[in-house]
């Protein structure tokens, strides 16, 4: 069985070692990369053979986990990030999801909870999409977002619908479904990013959620 590749970003060597040992004992995962802080991780991007999942610590020197997520929002590549922390702070959780984290776990979680979160992110795209949407809605409540006139072409609407599909489709798969080239998919994405100041694929899902543009939000 082909193993899922994982990268761990944590400033404590003993935590990285213990987490790596735990994951590899599960038999499904291979920890291929480790970084001791967020700045070191970001300086290594883009990765030639990127892992399928990134486990990111919140409390690190130089850059904390939220700052790393914010930096990843500026990049074209997609990163599935599971944030781990000892600080079960509501504001941190809300900010993590707002900036693209696919899941959030306390470091006191059990091995079963960790594996459950990883498998949800890999198969569905998020550990708990219902909680994420609820928290993002809460994060944005009270903020005076300017009213915008949303205009989508037919192809852009089709693209956005596929982005929000529960199957967590890749851009290659979207291109096949829409019978267009990957470059066309990238053009739809870039147009929406620039027009509505969106930074990531997760941002596209949240954009659709906020404005009730596509299933399952309509």
Verbal overview:
With 218 residues, the protein is α/β, with parallel strands linked by helices. Helix content is 49%, strand content 12%. The protein has helices at residues 13-25, 38-43, 65-73, 90-98, 111-123, 129-140, 154-163, 171-178, 182-196, 201-211; strands spanning 4-9, 29-35, 53-57, 81-85, 103-106. Strands 2-1-3-4-5 form a five-stranded parallel sheet, sandwiched between helices. Helix 4 (90-98) packs across helix 6 (129-140) and helix 8 packs across helix 9 (182-196). The termini are far apart. The mean pLDDT is 87.
Q: Could you say which structural class the secondary elements and strand pairing correspond to?
A: alpha/beta
* SSE string, helices as H and strands as E: EHEHEHEHEHHHHHH
Summed up, the helix count is 10
Runs in which pLDDT lies below 50 for 5 or more consecutive residues are none
Proportion of residues in extended strands:
5-15%
| Helix content class | 40-55%
Side by side, the strands of the main sheet go 2-1-3-4-5
Report the strand count: 5
Mean pLDDT metric: 87
Alpha carbon gap, first and last residue: 39 Å
Largest sheet: 5 strands, parallel
Radius of gyration from the alpha-carbon trace, in angstroms: 18 Å
Morphology call = globular
Topology readout:
Blueprint: E1 4-9, H1 13-25, E2 29-35, H2 38-43, E3 53-57, H3 65-73, E4 81-85, H4 90-98, E5 103-106, H5 111-123, H6 129-140, H7 154-163, H8 171-178, H9 182-196, H10 201-211
Parallel strand pairs: 1-2, 1-3, 3-4, 4-5
Helix pairs in contact: 4-6, 7-9, 8-9
In short:
The protein is of the alpha/beta class and about 220 residues long. Helix content is about 50%, strand content about 10%. α4 crosses α6, α7 packs across α9 and α8 packs across α9.
């Amino acid at each position: 069985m082909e193993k899922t590749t994982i990268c761990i970003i944590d400033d404590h060597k003993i935590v990285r070692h213990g987490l790596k040992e735990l994951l590899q004992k599960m038999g499904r995962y291979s920890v291929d990369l480790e970084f001791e802080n967020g700045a070191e991780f970001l300086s290594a991007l883009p990765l030639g053979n990127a892992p399928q999942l990134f486990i990111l610590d919140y409390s690190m020197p130089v850059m904390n986990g939220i700052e790393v997520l914010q930096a990843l929002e500026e990049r074209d590549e997609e990163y599935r990030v599971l944030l781990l922390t000892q600080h079960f702070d509501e504001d941190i959780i809300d900010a993590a999801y707002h900036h693209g984290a696919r899941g959030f776990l306390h470091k006191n979680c059990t091995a079963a909870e960790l594996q459950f979160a990883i498998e949800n992110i890999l198969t569905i795209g998020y550990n708990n999409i219902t909680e994420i949407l609820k928290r993002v809605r809460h994060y944005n409540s009270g903020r005076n977002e300017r009213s915008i006139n949303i205009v989508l072409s037919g192809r852009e609407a089709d693209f956005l619908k596929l982005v929000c599909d529960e199957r967590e489709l890749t851009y290659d798969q979207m291109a096949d479904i829409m019978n267009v080239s990957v470059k066309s998919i990238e053009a739809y994405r870039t147009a929406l990013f620039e027009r509505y100041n969106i930074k990531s694929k997760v941002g596209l899902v949240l954009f659709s959620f906020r404005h009730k543009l596509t299933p399952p939000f309509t």
